[in-house]
Structure formats: structure tokens, C-alpha cells
Amino acid sequence: MLARLVLALGLLAGCGSTSASAGTDAAPPLEEGQEEAIFAGGCFWCMEKPFDKVDGVISTTSGYTGGKEEHPTYEDVGYHRTSHYEALRVVYDPAKVDYDKLLQVFWHNVDPTQANGQFCDKGDQYRTGIFTSDPEEKAKAEASKKAAAAELGKPIVTEVLPEAVFWVAEAYHQDFYVKKPGHYERYRIGCGRDARLQQLWGDKAGH
Predict the structure, then answer these.
(1) Which residues contact 70 (CB under 8 A, 6 or more apart)?
(2) Segments forming the whole domain that contains residue 171
(3) Which CATH number does the domain housing residue 94 bear?
(4) Catalytic pick among 15, 43, 120, 191
(5) Per-residue pLDDT tens for 122-160?
């Protein structure tokens, strides 16, 4: 976590500083015909790209959820001053892609057997989770979790949790893989993310 926090505060200082932030805002409401899915998959920088490639996904937004504190900042979350997860809000068109497909994308981009974070990032804010908005979503998430456990032949520690307020992360975190592709690739490789995904999921790995 420290290495990525240094990257965010140092390399990205020109785009904004977490220490100067007054706090984040809650995600805007959905437009007519849109639905959302909320996933925590460790580093939110690394979760945007796989979902952006899915036909029917309208937007992805990095942010914080699952905590009781309001208007959290990246620095607050990184230094464990809040109880939030780093998370991704996926807004999609249900006429083009369904929730089950998004669940598959989620599983193939995380290590759901790791309890203390994701890959090299350790800490509660990097835990995996699926945040569901209604009983139907919860049932689908639980079923997909059971299927993932059977596929891997290992216990899954990813939690299925009730949806909470989603706070939109600072602007310099959004579309990081587009804005800073070199830093993004070095971070993914250096953190061992792609190697572990390949080990777990083989040809289904989401990288």
C-alpha cells in the first residue's frame, strides 16, 4: 500500500493532492435505463480496464464504499482512518450485458482466496467484496461465489455485502490506465497481479 500511496502523492501530485482534498462526493444517480454493479477488487486502478472493455458497460468509476464515514479521501482510506474498501462502480445497460456477465469479469480479475488484501497490496481497504442492492443481486452473487470456489477448488474469502454509499474517488484516480499507461503497467507487473491471475484462472484470467 505504501508504495502506491507514494506513487499517488508523488507522481500524480500535479493532478491533485489528497492532503488538500476537502472530501469526496457520493456517486450521482443513475439515468433511466441504467443499472449499476459495485465491486471491490483491490487496487481500483486495475479494475477499470477489464470492465471498460465489456460491451454494454457505460462507465466505470473508482471510489470508496462499505464504510460508515462520510466524504472519505484517498489518504484517509490509505492510512486506515476509515473503514472503506477501494471499489469500482460499473454503470451498464442491462439490455446489452447482464449482471451475471459482470460477476464473471469480477472473479477473473481478483484473487478471491487472499484475505489480507490483493496481490502486493495489503490492508482492509484492498479486500475483495461484492456489494448488492437487492435480494436478486445477492442470490446471483452468492451463486457465482459458489461456482468460483468449485472452479478453483479452494475456499473463497470474498464477501457478499449490502450496498452502501459509493464515494467517487479523486479525479486523478479515474481512468488511471489511460492517463498514465506506463505507470499503470509497471504497477500491475510489479505487484504480481497478472502472474497470480494467470496462475489462478489460466486462460480466463482477466488481464
Answers:
(1) 23, 165, 167
(2) 32-204
(3) 3.30.1060.10
(4) 43
(5) 999 999 999 999 999 999 999 999 999 999 999 999 999
